């Protein structure tokens, strides 16, 4: 597998706009009693979340584990708990004001997003174009078409 760094990302803890933590600058104790709605185990988002909370000595109470970010957003919007997703997943909801960020400066929620490419697989022009749109210049030689 070849790995290419695509872009930096940051996870964001968020709540419904009426939640007491909405827009607040929090401390670890503020999060200890909350119920969380998070991605499923094995996802990259969940790994960053679990590690960040462990580093802050917080054992989260998981209310729901969901695979779809939109399901997490809607569950948090309905007041079922606190969420944590990529800021990329939340920008529109935060701007619209139906979700609110929670400031968690004590949590390391930074990560790099990567593109993985199988080293032995042929890269079509379409795949190369997508990589290029992501700012990734794949350096493998393009195999020549059979001229027989």
Structure description:
There is one protein chain. By secondary structure, this protein is of the alpha/beta class. It has helices at 28-31, 44-55, 69-77, 87-96, 125-133, and strands at residues 2-16, 35-39, 61-66, 82-86, 99-102, 110-117. Strands 1, 2, 3, 4, 5 and 6 form a 6-stranded mixed beta sheet that branches. The longest helix has 12 residues, at 44-55. The mean pLDDT is 92.
What topology does this entry show?
Layout: E1 2-16, H1 28-31, E2 35-39, H2 44-55, E3 61-66, H3 69-77, E4 82-86, H4 87-96, E5 99-102, E6 110-117, H5 125-133
| Tally of DSSP helical segments | 5
How much helix, percentage-wise, in residues? 25-40%
Return residue spans where pLDDT drops below 50 for at least 5 consecutive residues.
none
Shape: elongated
Strand proportion: 25-35%
Overall mean confidence score, pLDDT: 92
**What gap, in angstroms, lies between the N and C termini?**
31 Å
Radius of gyration: 19 Å
Q: Write down how many β-strands occur, each being a DSSP E stretch of 2 or more residues.
A: 6
Listing every helix as H and every strand as E from the N terminus to the C terminus, the arrangement reads EHEHEHEHEEH
The secondary-structure class comes to alpha/beta
In short:
By secondary structure, the chain is α/β, with parallel strands linked by helices.
Short descriptors:
148 residues; alpha/beta; 6-stranded mixed β-sheet; elongated
